[in-house]
Design a protein that fits this description.
It catalyses: ATP + protein L-histidine = ADP + protein N-phospho-L-histidine. InterPro entries: 7TMR_DISM_rcpt_extracell_dom1, 7TMR_DISM_rcpt_extracell_dom2, HATPase_C_sf, HATPase_dom, His_kinase_dom, Sig_transdc_His_kin_sub2_dim/P. It comes from uncultured Sulfurovum sp. This is histidine kinase. It is a single chain. This protein has three domains: 153 residues, Immunoglobulin-like, CATH 2.60.40; 221 residues, Rhopdopsin 7-helix transmembrane proteins (Up-down Bundle), CATH 1.20.1070; 162 residues, Histidine kinase-like ATPase, C-terminal domain (Heat Shock Protein 90, 2-Layer Sandwich). The chain starts with a helix and ends with a strand. It has 607 residues and is of the alpha+beta class. It is built from 15 helices and 17 strands. Strands 1, 3, 4, 6, 8, 9 and 11 form a seven-stranded mixed β-sheet that branches. β16 and β17 form a beta hairpin.
C-alpha cells in the first residue's frame, strides 16, 4: 500500500509538469507549463542537466537579457491524451528585436538537433527555429532545449502547432514583413529619385537611413538569414549586430543635421558633431561584442533622446520642417521604448495585440519624413522665389542708379559731341571763307577752277556737320537732303541749265554718307565741267541709291558727251576710285556709251 501511494505521488508530479495535447492542439503557448534551468557557466552537458532541479516558469516568455556566458535550459513534457498518434511542430519563437537565438540545441531522447544563427539549415523555410515532434497514443515525452546567445538577448517563447496552422501563421508573418520591407523600399527609391533631382544632401542621408533600417529589420526579423542561407554571411551579420545599430544612429544623425539645418544652432550642432565622430569608434568596439554589447542599445537610446531634444529646440526656434520631424520621432521613440522593455524585461507585446507596433511605427515615421522632405521642396521653392524677388528689387535699384549715372554721362557726352560738331563746322566754314577770298583775288582761270573744286569738297563735309547739328535726336540723316545740298552748291558755280533728279530709296549710315558725299561732289563737278557745253540747251543728271539684299548700289548718270572726250586720269576720278575701293571696300564701274554712267556697289555690314 505504501508503494502504491508513492507511485501515485510520482505520477501526480509528472502529470503536474506534463502538457496534455491531442490532435486538435495548436497555437498553444507551453512555456508557462514547462520548467527552466539557468546554467551560468554554459558548460553543463545534457547528462549533467538531468540531475539538476528545474524550476517552474509562470510566464509565457523568458528573458535573461544580455548574458554572455549563460545558457537557458527548458524542459518540456508533452503527453498525448488521444488514442491516435499525433505530429506536431514546436516553434522556438524568438521574433523580437535583438533576440535572435545564436545556438539552439534540441534533445529528443538520443536525437540532437542544432538550430540558430550559428547552425542555419539549407532546408529552412521558417523565420523561427522549429522542431517536428511525434507522439504515440497516450505517450508522454520529455524534451530539452538549450538556448545560448553571446551577442544577442537570451529570450524565447515556445508554441506548439498543427502543421497546417503553422504554415498559415508563418505565411501571414512573412507577408507582413514583405509588406513592411516593400513600403520601405518604395520610400527609399522615391527619396533617392528626389536626391538625384534636387541634389539635396537631406534626401541622400534619408536614403542611407532607410537602407540601414531595412537591413536591421531584415536581419532581426529573420528574413535575411531565411532567404540568404549562407553560414558565412550569417556569422558576419551576427557579429555586426551592434555595429548595425550604431550605423542606424549615424544615418539618423546625418539626416537630422541637414534636415533641421542645425548649423544655425552652434552649441547643439557642436554636440551633434562630437557624437558623429564618436559613432565610428563605437561601431568598431561593438563588433562581435568586443567591448560593447548591451550598452550599445542604451547609448543609442540616449543619442535618440538627444536628437528628439534637438528637434523640439529647432521647432521652438521656428524651423518649419521641425514639426514633421518631432511628430515622426515621437512615433519612433514610442516603438523604440516598447522594444527596450520587450527586450530587457519579461514583457510580450503580443499579449496586447501589438505584435507589429514597431514595424508600423517605422513605416509611419518613414512616410511622414518623406512627406516632410517633399514639403521641404515647397519651402525651398518659396525661399527661392523670395530670394529672386529680393534680388530682382536689388538689381532694379542698381539698374536705376546706373541708368541715372549713364543718363548724366550720356547727356554730358551729347553736349560735348554737339560742341565738337559745332567747332568743326565753324572751322570748315572759316576755311571755305578763306578759299572764297582767294578765288576772288586769283585771276588765273585754272587756279580759280582748282580752288573752287577744293572749296566744294570742303563744303560737302561741312554740310554733313551742319545736318548733324540740326538733327538732335538721331545720327540717321536724310541722304537725299544731304546730296541735294552738295549738288545745289556745285550748280551755283556754273551757268549751265542742268536738271538733277534724285531717286534715293535707302538712307545711308553716317560713316558711309561722308564718302558718298565726296564721291558725288567729284562726279557731279566733272559732269558740270565736261559733260555739257555751255551752248547746250538742257542737261540731265540722275542720282540713284538702292539697297539690294544688303548690297548698296549707287548710280550717277548724265546724258552728256560721254567719257571719251573727258580726262581719264583726272584727280577727281582718282579720288573717287580711292574712296570706293579703299573706304567703302566696293567696286566701281564706268559706262560712257550713251552719256556717262558711274555705278558703285558695296556691302553694308550694319544691315
Amino acid at each position: 500500500m505504501k508503494y502504491l501511494i508513492i507511485l501515485v505521488i510520482i505520477f501526480s508530479k509528472l502529470s503536474l509538469y506534463a502538457v496534455n495535447i491531442d490532435e486538435n492542439s495548436s497555437n498553444l503557448s507551453i512555456l508557462e507549463e514547462s520548467s527552466i534551468f539557468i546554467d551560468k557557466t554554459n558548460k553543463l552537458t545534457k547528462e549533467e542537466i538531468l540531475s539538476k532541479k528545474f524550476l517552474t516558469n509562470p510566464s509565457n516568455i523568458v528573458s535573461l537579457g544580455f548574458v554572455t556566458d549563460t545558457s537557458l535550459w527548458t524542459k518540456v513534457i508533452l503527453k498525448n491524451t488521444s488514442s491516435k498518434p499525433i505530429n506536431k511542430i514546436l516553434e522556438y519563437d524568438n521574433s523580437y528585436e535583438n533576440s535572435k537565438v545564436e545556438e539552439l540545441l534540441f534533445y529528443d531522447g538520443n536525437l540532437t538537433v542544432r538550430r540558430g544563427l550559428l547552425h542555419i539549415s539549407k532546408t529552412r523555410a521558417s523565420i523561427n527555429p522549429i522542431f517536428y515532434l511525434t507522439l504515440k497514443p497516450y505517450e508522454s515525452k520529455t524534451y530539452y532545449l538549450k538556448n545560448h546567445s553571446r551577442i544577442n538577448i537570451t529570450q524565447a517563447k515556445l508554441i506548439l502547432w498543427n502543421e497546417i496552422d503553422f504554415i498559415r501563421a508563418e505565411s501571414k508573418r512573412q507577408m507582413y514583413i514583405f509588406i513592411f520591407l516593400g513600403i520601405m523600399l518604395t520610400l527609399l527609391i522615391y527619396n533617392f529619385m528626389l536626391f538625384l533631382f534636387t541634389k539635396d544632401k537631406s534626401y541622400f542621408y534619408y536614403v542611407f537611413y532607410i537602407l540601414s533600417l531595412m537591413l536591421n529589420s531584415a536581419f532581426y526579423s529573420g528574413m535575411l538569414s531565411l532567404y540568404i542561407p549562407s553560414q558565412t554571411i550569417s556569422n558576419f551579420l551576427l557579429k555586426a549586430t551592434g555595429s548595425f545599430t550604431i550605423i542606424l544612429v549615424l544615418a539618423t544623425l546625418l539626416f537630422t543635421q541637414t534636415f533641421l539645418e542645425t548649423k544655425k544652432f552652434k552649441k547643439l550642432n557642436t554636440v551633434l558633431n562630437i557624437i558623429l565622430w564618436t559613432l565610428p569608434l563605437l561601431a568598431i568596439l561593438s563588433y562581435d561584442a568586443w567591448m560593447l554589447n548591451e550598452s550599445v542599445h542604451y547609448i543609442s537610446l540616449l543619442f535618440g533622446l538627444y536628437i528628439v531634444y534637438v528637434a523640439f529646440y529647432a521647432l521652438f526656434k521656428g524651423v518649419k520642417q521641425a514639426r514633421f520631424y518631432v511628430f515622426g520621432w515621437s512615433i519612433i521613440m514610442i516603438g523604440f521604448v516598447l522594444q527596450i522593455f520587450q527586450s530587457i524585461f519579461d514583457y510580450d507585446l503580443r499579449t496586447y495585440n501589438l505584435t507589429y507596433l514597431q514595424d508600423l511605427a517605422l513605416v509611419l515615421e518613414a512616410l511622414l519624413f518623406s512627406i516632410a522632405l517633399a514639403h521641404r521642396i515647397k519651402l525651398n521653392n518659396e525661399q527661392l522665389i523670395l530670394f529672386k524677388n529680393e534680388e530682382q528689387t536689388r538689381l532694379e535699384i542698381i539698374v536705376s542708379e546706373k541708368t541715372k549715372a549713364l543718363t548724366a554721362s550720356l547727356n554730358e557726352k551729347e553736349i560735348l559731341y554737339k560742341e565738337l560738331n559745332h567747332r568743326i563746322k565753324n572751322n570748315l566754314m572759316m576755311i571755305i571763307s578763306l578759299l572764297k577770298l582767294q578765288i576772288k583775288r586769283t585771276k588765273n582761270t585754272e587756279t580759280t577752277s582748282s580752288l573752287l573744286v577744293t572749296k566744294n569738297r570742303i563744303e560737302s563735309i561741312s554740310k554733313l556737320y551742319e545736318m548733324l547739328l540740326l538733327n538732335d535726336e538721331s545720327l540717321n540723316l536724310n541722304t537725299e537732303l544731304y546730296l541735294q545740298g552738295i549738288c545745289n552748291n556745285i550748280s551755283m558755280g556754273f551757268v549751265k541749265d542742268i536738271n538733277i533728279n534724285y531717286d534715293i530709296q535707302h538712307n545711308l549710315k553716317i560713316d558711309n554718307l561722308i564718302y558718298i558725299g565726296l564721291i558725288v561732289n567729284e562726279l557731279i563737278t566733272n559732269s558740270f565741267k565736261y559733260a555739257f557745253d555751255e551752248k547746250e540747251e538742257k542737261g540731265e543728271i540722275s542720282i540713284v541709291i538702292q539697297n539690294n539684299r544688303d548690297t548698296i548700289i549707287a548710280s550717277i548718270t548724265d546724258n552728256g558727251k560721254g567719257f571719251k572726250e573727258r580726262r581719264k586720269n583726272s584727280l577727281g576720278l582718282s579720288i573717287v576710285k580711292i574712296l570706293v575701293e579703299g573706304q567703302l571696300e566696293g567696286s566701281l564701274t564706268i559706262n560712257s556709251k550713251e552719256g556717262t554712267n558711274v555705278q558703285i556697289k558695296w556691302k553694308d555690314e550694319s544691315l
